[in-house]
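<backbone_tokenisation>
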Amino acid sequence: MTEKDLEEQIEIDDSQDVEEGKTEDVESESEEEMNEKENEEDALEGVDIKAEEEEAETKETKKGFFGKAKKEKKDKKDIEIEELNDKYKRTMAEFDNFRKRTEKEKAQMYEVGAKEVIEKILPVIDNFERGLSSLNEEEKKSPFADGMDKIYKQLTKTLEEIGVKPIEAVGQEFNPDFHNAVMRGEDEELGENIISEEFQKGYLYHDTVVRHSMVKVVNC
């Protein structure tokens, strides 16, 4: 190989070295760029993950806030419903008490009115009894007396049907709740404080005294 050929070979080798150096530089630069790009992507991915976490946290916060608000609203609604139920129950109880009180007052008014009517009818019963008791046996057989007796029995039966009944007196022990003693006496055949005679019959209306019996009491 001549000197000239050697120089050319050296130049060619140098050129190859330069090219290889350039190639290595390019590859190095490409690798750095790729690393930088990966770092940037990792950074962006980190930013995205952080953003997603923040967004998730925000959603969770909002969810908690709205959930709490919804629960408070539900609790308030339940309280209102409970108050309305209590008010309804109190209203129904008051209405029931009013109904019972009204019925009781009506019954009392009816009883008072009935007693007033009965008190006015009792003298008529007394007159029927006096008139019939004054008839002798022959007069009792007359059609007139028989008609009066039927009217008397019909009247007393009607009073009995509405709750009016006579007070037992003769032979009973004196009771100031039912009897009015207008005369006293002695009778060895009867016990103490016993009614021997009745002057005017007393009556009850549903266990309430309409008129006391006027009686004679012996051995008191």
User: Anything to note?
Assistant: The two ends are 181 Å apart (CA to CA).
